[in-house]
Amino acid sequence: MKSTAIYCQYCHQRLFDLMSGTRGSIEIKCSRCRRVIRITFSGNQVKESSE
Ligand SMILES: [Zn+2]
Hints:
- The protein is an all-beta fold and 51 residues long.
- The chain has one domain (3-49).
- It has no helices and five strands.
- It has strands spanning 3-7, 14-19, 23-29, 36-42, 45-49.
- The strands form two sheets. A three-stranded antiparallel sheet has the order 3-4-5, with no helix packed on it. A two-stranded antiparallel ribbon has the order 1-2.
- The radius of gyration is 11 Å and the shape is globular.
- The model has no long low-confidence stretch (mean pLDDT 89).
């Protein structure tokens, strides 16, 4: 299965690998810069946003 690596938009720390075909949204705190990043994904489309 293909996966996409998700990186922090601030410090480019690798956060996790997302399996293609997954749908949903999560909030994750970057382990390096401690910022909270909201990620929404649907199929192969990934959007990162922040407050
Ligand atoms: Zn970061």
